[in-house]
Fold these 3 entries.
Entry 1:
Amino acid sequence: MSERPFVPSRPVVEVLLILGVPLAMVWMAVSTLVNGTFAAAGCNPLRIVRLLVAGAEHPDLTCTSVPFIADLPSLGLGLTSETAVVLYLLLIRRMRKLDVSLTREGAAIFDKGQLDQDPMRTRYAKFLVRLKVPSIRQLVVFSAVITLGTGFYVSASKTNHLFKTMANIQGVPHPSVSVQDGYRLSWWAQWDTDPSMAILWIAVGSIGTYFAFRQAYLYYHIARLFKDVPKLVVFRHVPARIDRDHGWRPVGRLTVIAYLSSLCFVCSLIVLIYILRDPDAPRPYRVVINVLLGAVAFAGTLLNLAVVATLRSGIHKSYAKSLKDRMVRLNSESAALENTGQFLAARTTRLEADHLVSDAGYPIRGGVVRVASLASGLIPVIKLSHDVINLYF
């Protein structure tokens, strides 16, 4: 497993990728400060959040534009884009060191030599082939993402739900077309007033989407590999006294990244649905958008859940196999010791085998943290389900 073409060590590139989106956001903030669209009277973001949560009011000071700092959906997309990039780079860093982490001295869960022997060698070679995506295909995918991002921008700049909501939360339940046009034309990323901001808006969203696709592609093949691993590798049981997670913590970190990626996807989709939701749009347009959003939400959420479940299942099956093999060996050793009259040693061996029963289950500890994380993840999932239902009813 010395060849790792899909996780090359390129520190400079990784730093540039990590800093790219934040620097773009900073540049947008500075540019809007210069041209006067960073903030506006009555458009404090905390006030906007309070109105969204607590309900509409008839304020003395009305926010009549959409400055940078009040555009919460765009800021949310910027945050999820940066998160997608960071999670992707974190994933390849974890993968780069995975074989070393799983075979570290004293807590190795398998013999590293198995990775260079069949059947694991053949299966891993197939895994690498799937990950060697030609540059032309990557360029095609990135171009498609840019095209989608541009189309998304065009739709958002014309029918952004925020333009109507800004009036709704300030005591105007049914804003006129002229009122909505006022918010639309004053939007900080409007092409007609500042094309550079529009281009950066498209770029930030497209970069996050592209890396989310790359991460999904990588995780799909990692999940397929882990599904086959229990049948290809002989695992070794690591007692809890040596390692509290029985040597499986490095793989557990991949599962955590997959879980965080799923939450990032759900949150970005919530923002996407919010921006594109337009009950007043022509019916054909509304039907097409609603069907596409519903399909992406359903398929994407299922795929994310399937990846996390497959990783956890692979860990559980591999660990259970190592536990079973260890118990079989201990029972055989105990029987052999009894046959030779070494009853004290046989009893000690049986006690160790009996103690392994308490280790059954998922090897990675921290059940309370996992339950709390799952509970926190239910909030955006419920919100997404609510938004998707509202698209159709």
Entry 2:
Amino acid sequence: GVSFFQTNTPDEAMAEATRRQAVRSRLLQEARENFDSIAGAAETPYSRNLREMQVKLNAYLRQDPSFYSRAIVFDRAKMDAAMAIGFGEIDAVKRVLAREGLRLGEDASDNLDAIRIAGKAVDLVDSRFGLRMYTQNATSLSDVGQTDPAYVIVPEPDHAQGTAVKGLTPQENTDFTNRHETWHAKDSRYSLKGLPPETVGYSSDYHAKEMSEDPELRQAFVTRFRKEALADTGALGDMIRDGGDFSTLEKVSTWRTTAPDDSIHFSPAVLSGLKAEIEAVGLDRFRGFTDREAKAFYYNVVEKYGISEKSIEAAAHYDMAAEKDRAAIEDAAAKDPEIRKGLAFRAAISVKKPEEGPNILSEAEAPLKAQLDAWKAEKILQDRAFALDGRVTPASLIRAYGALETELHDKMKSDAGNSRLYDLQMSKLQTTFIEGVQGTDYVEVNRQRGVKIEEVEPALSQFMTPVKIKDAETASPAPSKKNPTLKL
């Protein structure tokens, strides 16, 4: 029908715009005040998987303590809800963690922890499908909080996966990545404590000159390498213990060879050793290991096949040596496996990696983009909110978001042929939800569905229209001079 703003005077239109903004502000305020009670409605099956992952990990830590007494697996769905109703990223992180019993205050240290988590949990990317997408970078953050610190895991997203291992299905990729992060929490041997922070920060990549001179830098580098190698080994070993075969291990090894994040993630030699050691003990016996036996097995693999400080010192000296002096190091490598591993490592990471092609839409993907463009996420979200609660409010939009994401998640798993479409629809819905809830005209979207929101929401009684206004559905448009352009 004709808009109210086309049938009334500029003063009336301005008053109505102000009233509608006040309605929206009150509904959003109410949602923020009740966040703890409504955030659970945003949960999806993946949220429940993450909850199970957290419960199992904490049970493991109680049985086999590591450097950390408890872990929290961060649920992005609840952060989506918090951001959608107006919490900034930092406050959203704090609200989600508070639901797990970890309260971050306003001091610099706690704020820095929240910033670190937000930096990994919220990553905006522009998709070649024309979407502004929210994804996240899986990571682990230790010692979050001051009074009762926790180990916080930002898991792999269940859609819009930015670091997918080539050859793995989305589910396999999620399983591997999340197991990798849990093994960082389980590690009770490799610690960076006592090393200068600036040294640790510089140690993610191989630096021959500095490592030939600085033993602390070598220690930091090797410790971080072993932490990552253990996480890969534990994740893939456990997937095999749970019934998987070697194919996932081989795909991850190839991926680490061709697309390593940095030198400390270069684990192919260790993964090759893992396969050899499993074959040596026998698959059935390996699958029968207790958790403690498996952990000891993984540590042995990492240290037998991975680099040591002696290895990296030899590699660095080799790189810095004159050509005539390298023969002596090569001779030493023939007799010493630690030196030999160092030279093999430097050679492997020196291989030029293939460059990625341009991230542009292919001709074959054009029909998929057309389907995505035709999928009206905003209307679908509002229609579901209305169907669930008989009104569209921030709270009902949270419920609708959880329900729709759940349906798309289930379709992505059950209909493999169209999984890419469902993945993209989840991203489109997520962006629409996060960026749209605060801009919705709740008076208008409910009026379009036959509901006066002020009459059905008790908190809005003060915003009832004091006088009868012209019916926007039946009134003739006012002259153009009375039709100001007002955007809500």
Entry 3:
Amino acid sequence: MPRLLINRKKLNPIPPCGRRVIYQFPTSPFQVLIENARIKRKLSYREIAQEIGKSAGVVWQWLHSKNGTPTAGSCKEQHLERLAACLDIPLPQIKEAYDLSRHRFTEPGAVVPRPSTEAFQQFIEAVEHDKRTVLKKTYVLNLAKRLLKSGQ
């Protein structure tokens, strides 16, 4: 009996977790360096993954993630060394590209404290300078509300 159109399998079903990894062309210096070397040596993600001791999915995410670099937990020094040996790229060149990618996709400049942090600092100072050892709940809540209003 022929299948009805409504009973067909979907071509791209959504995975059970509900997320899809969207394909991103390699854009960071690290991604471009590794991808070009991979293509030049005609290696697949699976072959590279076997050489460095990771899964093919992890290697694919390294080269197609939006932030341009692998996460710190998934890419350690030993993985970069094995990657350099596998692709015949000098290790300093891979490290330099990795650092350039990390700095390119992170915001430069000093971290500016947020107003809420300053208000919380004022709260701590107010409680520290209070001579009482026991504070009422209403006093602490009123102090917090006052600092919240001054921070806005």
